[in-house]
Design a protein that fits this description.
Blueprint: H1 11-30, H2 42-47, H3 50-57, H4 62-74, H5 83-92
Length: 96
Amino acid sequence: MSLNGDTPFTEDEKSQMASFFEWAVVQSDKWDPSNVSSLSNAEEFDSTTLEAYCQKYLPGMGGWLANKMTGGLLGVNASEVNALFIIDYFRSGSNI
């Protein structure tokens, strides 16, 4: 994995990143803050940091990817925001 830009990403890593961003777009399209049931697992997203969620579903690079994204977009670590926050953030800005 290219953590410092010296080594290109493998095809698998590129696929994992694309899957993550596709997931984020799909979730943000579904999310309606005025209707919590619009997202079937909103409670899980609300109780899990983005970093933990990504580490669980993208083993090996999830935490790194989440931290790069939140650091660039929000100036914080992914351990400081929950997954639902980032879904709402994308929804508010018309996705990624």
